Amino acid sequence: MSLIDNPAPPLDIKEWVQGNPGTIDENRGKVILIEAFQVNCPGCFVGGLPEAIDIFLKNKDQPLEVWGLATAFEDYRL
Question: Rounded to an integer, what is the distance from CA 76 to the centroid of its chain?
Answer without folding.
Answer: 20
